Amino acid sequence: MLEGQRKQKKVAILGDSMLEYLNPRKLQQGLEQKITINTFSGAKIEDMNHYVKPTLCTIPDEIILHIGTNNLRNNNPAVVINAMGNLADTIARQNKDVKVTLSEVISRSDNHSMVEK
């Protein structure tokens, strides 16, 4: 790297299909960050334990997880939040240099039983 140049921060956003229409080019516009987005339709928190592994191999500076929506069908919010925290802790143990950010769980507007949670 040349003097005066900053390392471009690598940010990986992983989550369920709620992220499907995010545009990484628009998100990184004007930022010194390389943003990648990986969506896993129907993925639950327990699935992300597997899906996050290839991303960790790319050595990102930050991983943003948008997960939990698909878990709300069968679990109460407290259980979902606890599982999210456990996944974040697992990722942090695997790569101590990565910052893990959890997105707020959002409910689906097309399923009224989940909106109530």
Question: In a nutshell, what does this entry contain?
Answer:
This protein has helices spanning 24-28, 45-57, 77-94, 112-115; strands spanning 9-15, 33-39, 62-66, 99-102.
How would you describe the overall organization of this protein?
- By secondary structure, the chain is of the alpha/beta class.
- It has one domain.
- The chain contains four helices and four strands, in the order βαβαβαβα.
- The protein has a four-stranded parallel sheet.
- Helix 3 (about 75-95) links the parallel strand 3 (about 60-65) and strand 4.
- Helix 2 (about 45-55) packs parallel to helix 3 (about 75-95).
- The model has no long low-confidence stretch (mean pLDDT about 85).
Our count of domains comes out at 1
Q: What is the averaged pLDDT score?
A: 87
What is the subunit arrangement here? Answer: single chain
Q: List SSEs in N-to-C order.
A: EHEHEHEH
The structure class reads alpha/beta
Please tell me how large the radius of gyration is: 15 Å
What would the principal axes of the Cα set say about the shape? globular
Binned, the helix content reads 25-40%
Q: Note poorly predicted spans.
A: none
Across the major sheet, the strand order is: 2-1-3-4
Terminal Cα span: 49 Å
Give a short account of the largest sheet.
4 strands, parallel
- In what range is the share of β-strand residues? 15-25%
The total of beta strands comes to 4
Number of helix segments? 4
Protein name: Furin, partial
